[in-house]
Every structure is written in C-alpha cells, then in structure tokens.
Amino acid sequence: MDRQQEFVLRTIEERDIRYVRLWFADVLGSLKSVAVAPAELESAFAEGIGFDGSAIEGLARRSESDMLARPDPSTFQVLPWRGEDGQAGVARMFCDILTPDGEPALADSRNVLKRTLSRAAESGFTFYTHPEIEFYLFRGTPADSVGAEGGAVHAPVPVDTMGYFDHVPGGTGQDFRRAAIAMLEAMGISVEFSHHEGGPGQNEIDLRYADALTTADNVMTFRTVVKEVALSEGVYASFMPKPLADHPGSGMHTHLSLFEGDRNAFHEPGAQYELSATARHFIAGLLRHAPETCLITSQFVNSYKRLWGGSEAPSDIAWGHNNRSGLVRVPRYKPGKAQSSRVEHRGIDTAANPYLAFAVLLAAGLKGVAEEYPLAEGAEEDVALLTDAERRAMGIGQLPASLDHAIHLTEGSELVAETLGESMFEHVLRNKRAEWVDYRAQVTPFELRRFLPWL
Questions:
Q1: Gap between the terminal Cα atoms of the chain
Q2: For the chain, which residues score pLDDT lower than 50?
Q3: Which domain of life is it from (predicted)?
Q4: Domain that holds residue 242
Q5: Helix ranges restricted to H, 78-154
Q6: 257 φ, ψ to 5°?
Q7: Which of 33, 239, 331, 392 registers the highest number of CB atoms within 10 A of its CB?
Q8: Angstrom distance (rounded) from CA 454 to CA 62
Q9: CB neighbour list of residue 233: distance below 8 Å, 6 or more residues apart
Q10: What CA–CA distances, in Å, run from 147 to 156, 219, 248, 433, 443?
Q11: Are residues 124 and 78 in the same domain?
C-alpha cells in the first residue's frame, strides 16, 4: 500500500467517514457512483470493486460485462454537503475502470484522456486546461421546465432578469455563487472568477488552470456541487447548452496550453501575439479537425441550438485575437507574461463529457504540431458580418449545422476513432444516431423550421 492510500484510510478513520462514494463517468459524461464501506476500501485499492459494465452507457458489451472500478487515492475528498447535523460523513474518489485482467478498460472515459495525455508526454508536453463554466439557475424543479427529462408543461423561470456582470444585491445568484465557491474550495477545487452571465439567471464560475485530467475530474465534481447547492437554496441548476431559445446558450470556453517542463511551449517573445510556432500549429490542428471533433465537444441536439443561436456562439471555424465570434481566440490579458500565453476554445458546451472533449482537442492540436499544419491569417473582425465570398477568401468554414450533420462528419474520422478507441467510437455514433432519430420523430415541423432551418 502506498503513502497516498495510507493517508486516505487514516483520514477516513480520523474524520469518522462512514461511506466512500466511488465515481466515474459513462460515455456521455454522466456521473456514476457506488458507495462502499470503509472496511472494503483496502481491498478496493488492491483489486477494485466488481460491477456490471454492460449496464453503463457505452462501457462494455454484454459478452464482456464484468468490470472493476479501482479508486484513485489522489482524488480523495470529503463531501462538504454530507456529514452535517449528525449525518454520517461521506467522501468520494474517482475511479479507473479495469477489465478482470487488470488492464485499463478501453471504453473508460478517464482512460481515454489518460492515453492521450501519455501521447503528449512522449512528445515532451504537459497539457493544461482552464474552463469557464456557464449554467442557468431556474426556480422550482426540473420537472416544471420545458426541456427537462420526461417532458414538461411550463417554461423554465430564471431566478433573475439581470445580465452580464450585473451586481444583484441580495440576489439568489450572488448568494448561490458564494455558497458554491465555498463548497468547491472545501473540496480542493480552486476558483478564479465568478459573475453573472448574459442571460437571465445565467451564471459563470471559472476554475483555476490545472493539468487536463485534474480539470476533467474537477468539472465532474463542479456539476455535482452546483446542483447540490442549488437544491439547498430551493432552485435548480441547468447545464443544458441552450435552455432558453431567446437567450444565450451555456458554453464551457476552455483555455488550453502545452508546457515543456516549466516552460510554456505556446510563448515566443516578439512573435505575433507572442505565439510560438508550436501554438500556431496547435491552433491549426484545432481548426482543421473541428468538424469531426464537434460531435464530442457538442454532443446533443440541443448543443447545435447553442452553436447556431447567436450571442457570440462560435459557429465559424476561425481564429483571432480580440474576436469572440470564432471558434478559437488568443487572449492577451497580460502581454509579456510567458506563463499566460494560451488559446481559448469556445466550442465546448457545458453538457460535454470533459474527459473525451479534452482528449479529442489535445489529439487534434498534437496532430497539427506533429505535422506542422500551416495557420491562416486570423480574423479580427466579427466573422458573422462577413459575406460568403469574404469567408471563402479567408478559408473560413463552419461547424456542423445539426447533430445529424456532426455524426456524418465524424463517421470517417481517423483522429476521433483513434483517440476514443474502436468500441467507444462505435458506441458514440450508435448513441447519437438513435438520439437524432428519436428527436426527428418527436419534434414538430414548426420546431424544425425554427431551430434547424438548414434541414
């Protein structure tokens, strides 16, 4: 037993933790959880906990259903919303999913990202990410709202009618953000900023940058914390990409950077925007492979209502410095500071599986670096205002127009297939085809014309 495992067992005993929840994600990024007693934890570290993998979305076929969940002791945290008022204390750890032979499960989302990070490490790179997570707060419960699971009868009612950066004295959102941040930091998740976003009841909380695996774990925890805090305050949080047709969607704009040891590989003093050749090739990889990776970063029918719903949503495959209408932006808040050089990908939405989204973006960027993709000139004006002729002259393409379109563009993608692995790649395609067929069967012609005018 290593020192980290010993620390976990000692902390559980000292803090009287009665239950330990083992967390992992299915292929869609939904959180799965199994609770074990502390007495079983030593065995779980050594051998894992057995479960039926075929019952988890995209994890295993029935013929290979036996799976093991082995907790990662480095992710141990006590859940701060448990263990109060005399309740038994509860902690959590993320798990790696293994086959009975002890090999990493090919269809484990966390393992997909770890494999891609290993490829980056072979080239000398560490991949860092910094997400800006948007979400809406609504009154009532999800069952009251249009778009919630199981159908609905009432439109969702935001908790306020304020806008971007508005200060709301005594407002629900402000109290909520303060409580959510306190809980996140109690779990060791550092928060950089928080504020009201552009839509009514829309909020944003930005997590501090970390290596991509830690960030993906933090995003999964973030969603759970936000939902728990919302319920405690009598409201509910929605991570739906476009819950309100007439207001901005919710994205998870993510800042990306590669480091070689302590050196930021994206920084080059004196270059345009202080971007190194590595950074420019990385951006070119993100752009060239955007049509095929979009199914992973925007995985639902509702995701494309966000991408094509205006409000600075990035439907155009372009990059620039100050331009927030394209897919990739190069922030320059602190010129001359080497550690701050990075690129911002604006296509990921808040419903994405963070492990798979980070994996395919890293794979696309690394391919651009390895093959030295050339980067076209950036677009500094609002891309949405350009004519078709101007777009063609600048080589600006567009993201898929619908889930069906994204499926079609991803089907032949060697990059996505290689990154996800054969079994997960095929399951993603099957799942998304079924979702599209179900959507077309239920949606009215009016909604098709309103939301999907390109059909």
A1: 58
A2: 146-152, 451-455
A3: Bacteria
A4: 117-451
A5: 109-122
A6: -155, 150
A7: 239
A8: 39
A9: 172, 175, 176, 179
A10: 9, 23, 16, 20, 12
A11: no
